[in-house]
Structure formats: structure tokens, C-alpha cells
């Protein structure tokens, strides 16, 4: 959770931004705790030289600070400071195991040169890969290159607010890393549809912030959260058992939900997911991106998980089919129905096990079956091969530890006051 991959950001940001609500009342986040002062030595010691953030004695050198410009090379950084060309070549070679200077120097990243005026040359170059990682090029006779990390401090914070536009904007306005919105949308993927955040939805989150020199550099873990959606509270507690962390509600039930293994009871698999299958009707090889379950015509087809119907119609090849979006990650499809169940149309919410249609052979099909399709992050996958995260509750032998954790965090979630600008409490909308 330390860093949110860009791809995920691209996928989720639009949905968080799109929800048409905004925040009108917020609480300031917890003040940062006072920095822990280093042990104050009472014995008389020689004062140590002041070290800069990279561990160099700040006043022993003259420093030059800059950012990598477009198309600037490693040599371009050093040549103006009288570093001999052979030294530059050796430094680049020695760096290769930790840092390829031809591929990894990025425009815009800061670097610092430590100049030794008595030698009239640069002694060290420090390149900051990101807020935490940096590379030191020691340009003395025995050229050395090493990768280092700045010490990261983890600070626990609490944030809360009432949403009137989007969660993303709420966090942004409070100066909180909006990536927290993405983490929350994943924790609650099965409980809350973040496309449908409502005015007066509210949240309280206890989370970790990673800091360097007091400056936030990213998110740590979310320890607990309370999300009030449509008048109902959804609690989440991060709990680790046997080295595996998951989120559980106040009763210790997993926030994840498992899929039903098959959309029809007592069916037989008649054709498996196969990237190269001889199609019985089209008489040619073509990928079969689903799993066929043969069953008598008219057998009820069930939604394999909670979700929202996104398609329910007839198409030439699919026949009568239904497509259900379960959350930001998973979507399922059910093809060749004899008919779609009453009331199943786009926008309708379904629960796991709800009958959404009946087995048939409409569209491109030889006999009665349901072709079950499964999308993960927009790509069709073989659901029988997928490893789903555990949806088991807290194990009996970890129960006491879980309850202790919950009892510590729950009051903190409940005590965080939520301010409403219009002084009216959130009311549950009519069902
Ligand atoms: Zn099929």
C-alpha cells in the first residue's frame, strides 16, 4: 500500500472524481505529534558536525543543487565541475548493479554535487531517485557507488469528513494524500459502490503516514475505517493472522466476498476456458473465453456475486445475456439464456444467488447451456484458475487478539466528530 501503482490510479481516479458530490465540512486531521527528540546526552562530548539529509558534513563542502534537465546525461552533470572523463566512465560502470545512469536518470529529479574547492573538483554526486531512495557517487580515486535510503518515520493519523462531492476531493482539500481514497475504495470494494457516493456519506480513517523530516512522502497502512454510506455504518479493521493481513468488520467477518463457483446448480462443465478451441458451430479454431455449463433448458441462472447489472439484452452471438459489475475489479457475464429474469435490467442491484435468467441456447449455441464469462480488471480470465483472496472470518484462535484490537480502535472511530454544515444529521434515503 506504500505506493499506488499508476495504472490503478488511472483506473480509479476517474470514478472517484466523477461521483458528483463535494465536501462542505471537515475536521482538520490530527496534529502531528511532537518530533521525538534525540536522547540529550548529559556528558560533555565533542559536538558532531552537522549532517545534511544524505549524511554529509554540511559545511565541509560547497554544494550545488539542481534538477536533471531533459536529455541531460550523467557526464553533463559532472564535466562542468572538472571531474575527469575516466572517473565519470568508471562511476557509471560501478553504478550499473544498483543504478544504470543511461536509463535511470529522470528529468526533473533533484541532485546535489559536493564540491571540494581545495581539489577544485566535485567529490560526491547524490541523485535522489524518489523521496526515500538516493544514489551516492563517490568520485574520489577509489570510485564507489552505493544506494541509500533516507529514514522514514511512520506517523498515525486520523482523518474524517462528510462528503458532498467526492471522497477524493474531500481528502485533497484536507491536505491528505488522495491515494487514501483509492485504498478505501479497495477495502470496501464489496460493500460500497464508490460510483454512488451520496451527499452526507461520511468517513473516519485511522491510517499511517510515511514522513521524511516531517514531510509526508506517502501512505502507510490503513488501520481502521468507518464509512457511513446511505445511513449505514461500514467498519473495517486491519488484522493480521499467520502473516496475512486482511480487513474485517466489527464481528470479525471478512470484508471480501467469495464468488459462487458456478452460476447454475447441478450443472456439468461442457467446455472449458480455452484460448484455442474448435468451435462446434463456426467450424474453426477460436478462443473460448468462458466456461460452459450444460443444464436443462429453463434451469435458473444465478448471479455469482453481489453487483449491479450493466447489460441485459439480446445480441446475435451471445443470445439473451446479462452482464454484472461486482466492483472495480470483477465483472461477470451469462450468455445464451432462454430468457432474462423479470426485473433484470441495467442499473438494477443484484445479490449473490439471485436468479437473473434461465438456461437456453439463444445466439451461437448448439444445445442448452450457460456460457459464464469472468472479467478481472477488464480482461477475460478463467475463473476456475483465479485465486481469490480469503473471505473467511477471523480464525477462532485469533479471535481474542482481534477483539482487543477492535476494542482499542472502535472508540477512536466513534469519537471522531463529524461536522455537518447544515447541522442536519445524515438521514438514510428512502429504500
Ligand atoms: Zn461458452
Q: What does this molecule look like?
A:
The chain has helices at residues 6-18, 74-78, 85-95, 101-104, 167-173, 179-187, 399-415, and strands at 25-26, 62-67, 110-116, 121-128, 133-138, 144-149, 153-162, 202-212, 215-229, 232-241, 244-248, 268-271, 274-278, 285-288, 291-294, 300-302, 307-315, 319-325, 330-337, 339-340, 349-350, 355-358, 369-376, 379-380. With 431 residues, it is of the alpha+beta class. The chain folds into three domains: 1-30 and 152-256 and 392-431, Nuclear Transport Factor 2, Chain: A (Roll); 58-149, Nuclear Transport Factor 2, Chain: A, CATH 3.10.450; 268-385, Glucose Permease (Domain IIA). Strands 12, 15, 17, 18, 19, 21, 23 and 24 form an eight-stranded antiparallel β-sheet that branches. A six-stranded antiparallel β-sheet has the order 1-7-8-9-10-11, sandwiched between helices. The model is unreliable at 1-43 and 419-431 (pLDDT under 50). The chain binds zinc ion. Zinc ion binds next to loops.
Amino acid at each position: 500500500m506504500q505506493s499506488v501503482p499508476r495504472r490503478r490510479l488511472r483506473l480509479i481516479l476517474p470514478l472517484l472524481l466523477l461521483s458528483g458530490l463535494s465536501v462542505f465540512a471537515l475536521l482538520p486531521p490530527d496534529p502531528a505529534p511532537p518530533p521525538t527528540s534525540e536522547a540529550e546526552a548529559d556528558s560533555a562530548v565533542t559536538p558532531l558536525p552537522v549532517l545534511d539529509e544524505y549524511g554529509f558534513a554540511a559545511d565541509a563542502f560547497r554544494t550545488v543543487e539542481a534538477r536533471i534537465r531533459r536529455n541531460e546525461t550523467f557526464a553533463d552533470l559532472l564535466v562542468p565541475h572538472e571531474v575527469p572523463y575516466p572517473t565519470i566512465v568508471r562511476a557509471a560502470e560501478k553504478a550499473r548493479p544498483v543504478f544504470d545512469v543511461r536509463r535511470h536518470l529522470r528529468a526533473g529529479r533533484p541532485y546535489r554535487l559536493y564540491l571540494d574547492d581545495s581539489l577544485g573538483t566535485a567529490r560526491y554526486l547524490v541523485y535522489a531517485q524518489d523521496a526515500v531512495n538516493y544514489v551516492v557517487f563517490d568520485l574520489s580515486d577509489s570510485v564507489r557507488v552505493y544506494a541509500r535510503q533516507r529514514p522514514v518515520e511512520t506517523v498515525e493519523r486520523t482523518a474524517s469528513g462528510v462528503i458532498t462531492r467526492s471522497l477524493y476531493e474531500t481528502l485533497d482539500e484536507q491536505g491528505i494524500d488522495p491515494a487514501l481514497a483509492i485504498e478505501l475504495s479497495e477495502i470496501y470494494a464489496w460493500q460500497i459502490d464508490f460510483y454512488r457516493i451520496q451527499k452526507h456519506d461520511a468517513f473516519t480513517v485511522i491510517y499511517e503516514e510515511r514522513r521524511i523530516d516531517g514531510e509526508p512522502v506517502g501512505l502507510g497502512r490503513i488501520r481502521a475505517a468507518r464509512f457511513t454510506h446511505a445511513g449505514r455504518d461500514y467498519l473495517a479493521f486491519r488484522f493480521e493472522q499467520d502473516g496475512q493481513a486482511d480487513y474485517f468488520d466489527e464481528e470479525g467477518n471478512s470484508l471480501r466476498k467469495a464468488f459462487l463457483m458456478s452460476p447454475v446448480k447441478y450443472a456439468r462443465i461442457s467446455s472449458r476456458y480455452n484460448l484455442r478451441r474448435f468451435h462446434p458451430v463456426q467450424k474453426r479454431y477460436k478462443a473460448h473465453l468462458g466456461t460452459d455449463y450444460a443444464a436443462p433448458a429453463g434451469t435458473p441462472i444465478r448471479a455469482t456475486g453481489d453487483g449491479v447489472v450493466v447489460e441485459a439484452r439480446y445480441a446475435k452471438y451471445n443470445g439473451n445475456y446479462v452482464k454484472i459489475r461486482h466492483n472495480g475489479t470483477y465483472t461477470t457475464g451469462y450468455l445464451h439464456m432462454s430468457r432474462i429474469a423479470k426485473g433484470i435490467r441495467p442499473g438494477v442491484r443484484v445479490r449473490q444467488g439471485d436468479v437473473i435468467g434461465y438456461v437456453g441456447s439463444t445466439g451461437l449455441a448448439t444445445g442448452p447451456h450457460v456460457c459464464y464469462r469472468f472479467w478481472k480488471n477488464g480482461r477475460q480470465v478463467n475463473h476456475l484458475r483465479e485465486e481469490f483472496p480469503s473471505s473467511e472470518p477471523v480464525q477462532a484462535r485469533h479471535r481474542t487478539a482481534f477483539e482487543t484490537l477492535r476494542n482499542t480502535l472502535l472508540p477512536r472511530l466513534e469519537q471522531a466528530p463529524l461536522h455537518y454544515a447544515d447541522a442536519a444529521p445524515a438521514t438514510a434515503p428512502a429504500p
